[in-house]
Amino acid sequence: MIEVQNVSKGFGTLQVLEGVSLDIHDGETLAIIGRSGSGKSVLMKHVVGLLTPDEGRVLVDGTDIDTIPYEELRRLRRRFGVLFQGGALFDSMTTFENVAFPLRYFSSMDEGGIRDRVQECLDLVRLSGVGTKNPTDLSGGMRKRVALARAIAIEPEYILYDEPTSGLDPETSNTINDLISHLAEELNVTSVVVTHDMHSVLSIADRVAFLHERNLEWVGPVSGIHDCSNPHLNSFVKANEYQVGDTTPALSGPSA
Ligand SMILES: Nc1ncnc2c1ncn2[C@@H]1O[C@H](COP(=O)(O)OP(=O)(O)OP(=O)(O)O)[C@@H](O)[C@H]1O
């Protein structure tokens, strides 16, 4: 279990998070939503120890990740797979080498083991056969899937997704959403998805955390986002409905 306790973070004069507390339960898929710039990625980076809070702390299974020695943090990071916004693939390496990278860095697997595991991960994201290609030769959706294969290579307990469907067409977004759900079920991982794509939220999330103006204003089951009493969340959801059009059944909630 991950516990974000009273976390505040600012950069210079910009206060991004103020006293944010959030529990992330084992096995769930939690979506962190909010307007652009509301601090979703900053919150996610605290969860994996890539940012240190100014105040507050983050506990993973009871361990404060900001106070542990580097070697322990490295071991702990091995339990996380992160799909960064934009994929963050190494363009100079083949797809195979990109997926093999965390295995070489974090594990002591031999070449045969690495080859088998990379193939397994590429199969899981339905990309068998592209191992020799460079990421630059792949479509945006395929690059996201390669990044996903890399994120799962070390068999993480937690997968953090930063805007997994941004920049993708609706059909490719659905493929990514299906994969996220499939991985959550198949590998029984805990998933944290930072997104403003409400289709994604409605199709994959168990619970939703809504960030607004430095605070976590609402946390609850995905079924509650259409009839909650938080005015900021209501207008966020409505704005998304307006953007995609009200003919989309998945977004036509009871309060629409
Ligand atoms: N390392 C940093 N240094 C300075 N400012 C930062 C840093 N990281 C984030 N910020 C600022 O913090 C604010 C929140 O950024 P963040 O990326 O978390 O937003 P977000 O909610 O994920 O937005 P988006 O949906 O557009 O990706 C932004 O104003 C951003 O410029």
Automatic annotation (TrEMBL):
One Gene Ontology term of the molecular function aspect: ATP binding
Keyword Isomerase assigned: no
Protein name: Phospholipid/cholesterol/gamma-HCH transport system ATP-binding protein
Record InterPro entries: AAA+_ATPase, ABC_transporter-like_ATP-bd, ABC_transporter-like_CS, P-loop_NTPase
Keywords of this entry: ATP-binding, Nucleotide-binding, Transport
Gene3D superfamilies in alphabetical order: P-loop containing nucleotide triphosphate hydrolases (3.40.50.300)
Biological source species: Salinibacter ruber
One Pfam family named in its UniProt record: ABC_tran
PROSITE patterns: ABC_TRANSPORTER_1, ABC_TRANSPORTER_2
SUPFAM superfamilies, per database record: P-loop containing nucleoside triphosphate hydrolases
